[in-house]
Known about the structure:
Elements: H1 11-46, H2 56-60, E1 78-84, H3 111-128, E2 133-135, H4 140-144, E3 147-152, E4 157-159, H5 161-167, E5 168-173, E6 177-182, H6 186-198, E7 235-237, H7 253-261, E8 264-266, E9 277-280, E10 284-286
Antiparallel strand pairs: 1-3, 2-10, 3-4, 5-6, 7-9, 8-9
Amino acid sequence: MTPRRAPAASPAARGTAAVAVLLLLAPLAACTEETSQAVDRASAQSSTPPSGVASPSESSAAPRPVRPTATSTADKKLEGGGFATAVPGSDAPDRKVDVGPQYAVSDDLDIEEIERLVAAVEAIAKEQRVGDPLVTGGSVAAAVGTFGYRWFADGTVAPDPAWVAENIRSEEVPILGSVTCHKVMLPQLRGALREVVARGLAEKIHADEYAGCYYPRFIGRDPAKGLSLHSWGIAVDLNVPGNLRGSAGEIDRDVVAIFKKWGFAWGGDWQWTDPMHFELARLVRER
C-alpha cells in the first residue's frame, strides 16, 4: 500500500502554526530562566561554610572595619532598587536552639567566695539602679518599620532618607560612647551596657573594637542573602578581632547572658557562628 502524503500547508496556515508555537514556548522559556536563577541561588547558599568552619575568605580577611562611616552615595555605582517589606528574623538563616543565658562558675571557687561575689554584685547593682527588663510582647518588625532603598555595587544600600530621619539616632551609651542605632533599640542597648557596668564587667567590652550598629548593607554584601539587620540599626558588633565568623569567640559569656536578658540574640548561637554579633530579637522595657 502506498502511504498518503498530507497536502502541503498554505503560507497562511504555516504562519499561524509558527505563532502558536512561539506562544507556547514563551512561558516555558521564562520558567527555564527562573529555574536557572533558583539553581544559581541554591548553589550560592550551599557554599556557606559548615558549623565552626570559616571560609578561606573569612578566615584570612582582616577584621571588620571599626566604626564604619557612611560613604557618599555620589561616589558609588548605583546597581538597582527594592523595598524592604519587613525585618528579617535574623542575619543567620540557620540558628541553634537558644537555651537562654548560661552562667559559668570557676571550679576553684569555694562557697564563701561565691557568696561574697554575689553580695558584691547585688550591692553594685543596687547602687547603679539597674532596672530589670520586662518583655513587652510587641513586634520588632512593626516597631522598626519598613523602607525603600537603593543598592550599590559594593553591597551597601541607601535607605529612604525620610525613614532614616524618623528612626536613626546618635546617642551616648555606657562603655561605647556615641553610637548610631535605631531609636527603638537604643534603650535596650543602654540597659544591657548599664548592667554590664553594674556587674563589674565593663572591661570585658572593648570600645576600640566596636564595629558599628547602623551600617546599611546586604548580609555579606551579597544581595541574594537579603538585608542585614544593621540596615535597620538593630544589631551591634563587639570585640571584633577576637570574635570572628566561624570561631567560638572570646567574648565574656556573662556579657552574652546580660545581652540576651535585654532582648538580644547572639551570633555565637548560630550554626556558623558570629560571636561578635548581637541583634534585636524581642522588645523589652525596664520594669
